[in-house]
Amino acid sequence: MLALALAIAGLTYALLNHDNGDKGGETAKDSGPAVSSPAQTKTDEPSDTPSPSPSKSTTSAPPPQSVAVSLSGSNTDYTGSCPPDRSAAPTFTVTLEVGRLPATVTYRWVSKNGSVNGSWKTLTFPAGGGKSQQDRRFVTTQDDSGTFEDTISVEVRDPVEKTSNSVPFSLTCVAETPTGTGEASPTASP
């Protein structure tokens, strides 16, 4: 591009001053004032000034997005009647924190045994908003008895792939014994 501009400037100069400038800046056909170009340099002579290099954008790309993911649990060892109340059920809270705004994070809840795997969810972090958000998950069952043990974590797939720490839990369902009147309850005989 620079070479083309210099070639055009040189051609203009040569056409306007084809008599080597002997007429004091006037053209051969026009006795009026001459039109001067801003840079009257000859293109066939080397220049002491280095030619400018192609300009580089001064705007740099933003750094890659980062996501921190951590998981905490409460009531992770439940024993009692099932299904438990939400206030007593194993509860898990994931905290997702992004490095810059705006951002969108896609994640899901997963368990080691596959029993609590959820579908992919999306959290949006708008410009001007907070860089940290939380989501909560409760674990329960409709079974009347038995023990359910597993480990839960959170997988992030976008904008980066990352997995939270794992939190183990145990949910033991105990059948309620009826409070009685003091009388024996009938049982079936074989």
UniProtKB/TrEMBL annotation:
Disordered: annotated segments: 17-88
Bias kind Low complexity: ranges: 48-60
Biased composition (Polar residues): 67-79
Biased composition (Basic and acidic residues): 19-29
Protein name: Serine/threonine protein kinase
The organism of origin for this protein: Streptomyces sviceus (strain ATCC 29083 / DSM 924 / JCM 4929 / NBRC 13980 / NCIMB 11184 / NRRL 5439 / UC 5370)
